[in-house]
Structure to design on (231 residues):
């Protein structure tokens, strides 16, 4: 079984400040890890993913995340927040060998990012 | 189309009515998922298809929920005798066969049951 915990259902930062959204996972095998973003009334869009190799991954819109096995974490960061970053962010986990189904992708409950002007 | 297409985008149903939600996945994508997203929550797995075969329906909350993908492309999620607790956004996602779990999502169908 696998699961994801996102600490903080709401995070508020000032425009230009560092964004840090926390994600911890539980998996009995080495995971694949994802961050998705959801804008209001839209579907989920992939920000970035970790499968194998370099543990620091870069995604779209200036976001990056680092896989830390020892901490079972995959926190999302962005050096300088922009108003357009306001959205819901979901961390998700799957694992190899990927076989779809209920373990195809398991999501956290999400973190609502608020950007203060 | 280039992306996953879902219809209708919004559906209001009276309690007890049947509804059908359609998903048109990315062309050539073998795998198709349905998720339910309640307000303020993350997506929750409902069911999974590989081509026309429904390989996992463990997330369907009751026997009122039924999904099909008869020709391995378009899928329909049907909810019979809708209840207020069925109000949610229903998300469809697809992916190709060689995958790590990166899913491509539609914009969802928002169901409101009165």
């Amino acid at each position: 079984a696998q699961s994801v915990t996102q600490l903080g259902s709401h995070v508020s930062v000032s425009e230009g400040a560092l964004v840090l959204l926390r994600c911890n996972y539980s998996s009995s095998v080495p995971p694949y890890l994802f961050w998705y973003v959801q804008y209001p009334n839209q579907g989920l869009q992939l920000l970035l993913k970790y499968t194998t190799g370099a543990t620091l991954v870069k995604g779209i819109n200036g976001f990056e995340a680092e896989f830390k096995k020892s901490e079972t974490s995959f926190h999302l960061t962005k050096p300088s927040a922009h108003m357009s970053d306001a959205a819901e962010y979901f961390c998700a986990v799957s694992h190899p060998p990927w076989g779809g189904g209920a373990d195809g992708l398991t999501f956290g409950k999400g973190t609502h990012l608020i950007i203060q002007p | 189309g280039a992306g996953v297409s879902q219809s209708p985008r919004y559906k209001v149903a009276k309690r007890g009515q049947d509804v059908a939600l359609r998903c048109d996945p990315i062309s050539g994508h073998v795998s198709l998922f349905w998720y339910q997203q309640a307000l303020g929550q993350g997506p929750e797995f409902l069911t999974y298809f590989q081509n026309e075969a429904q390989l996992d329906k463990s997330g369907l909350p009751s026997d009122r929920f039924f999904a099909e993908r008869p020709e391995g492309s378009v899928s329909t999620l049907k909810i019979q005798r809708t209840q207020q607790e069925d109000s949610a956004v229903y998300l469809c996602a697809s992916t190709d066969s060689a995958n790590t779990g990166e899913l491509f999502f539609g914009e969802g169908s928002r169901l409101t049951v009165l």
Observations:
- The mean pLDDT of chain B is 95.
